[in-house]
Amino acid sequence: MNKIFLIGNLTRDPELSETNSGVPVCRFSIAVNRRFSAQDAERQTDFFNVTAWRGLAENVAKFCKKGNKVAVVGSVQIRNVEDNSGQRRTYVDVVADDVEFLTPKGSAASSDDDYAPAPRKKPALEAFDDDSDIPF
Fold it and tell me: Rounded to an integer, what distance in angstroms lies between the CA atom of residue 64 and that of residue 116?
């Protein structure tokens, strides 16, 4: 099984583009702090390149920006590429199945207010004075 769960902050604004066939694709990267660090050492951070497709790609591009905290669920994809000088390079990418936006609305790092849920109306309570139906 190839599954990865990450929680981190976007290191740059997401980049939305389309494939030649018109499928939306969004690329972004997140910084994930390691759980433990060596004693008297600076906390270590790992950086992950993430790719989201179709509707998820459009939502990430619309609602996220640099600094936002997100949870990413997806799979790891490894690519071997030969660069211009003939050296083989290995890239590790995360293909997102789901991205959850964790930055609270109204915080300094949040994006537009568009993704905030609409305020819910409280139902009006009516007085009930008829005691004749109460069985006790």
Answer: 12
Tell me what the pLDDT averaged over the chain comes to. Answer: 84
CA distance 112 to 13: 13
Residue 37's pLDDT is what? Answer: 65
Q: Using alpha carbons only, what angle is made at residue 131 by residues 128 and 133, rounded to the nearest 5 degrees?
A: 105
What is the total residue count of the chain? 136
Cβ(99)–Cβ(72) below 8 Å = yes
Over the stretch 97-134, which tens digit does the pLDDT of each residue have? 999 999 887 665 544 444 444 454 555 556 656 566 65
Identify the three-state secondary structure at position 114. Answer: helix
Q: Are 22 and 65 in contact (CB under 8 A)?
A: no
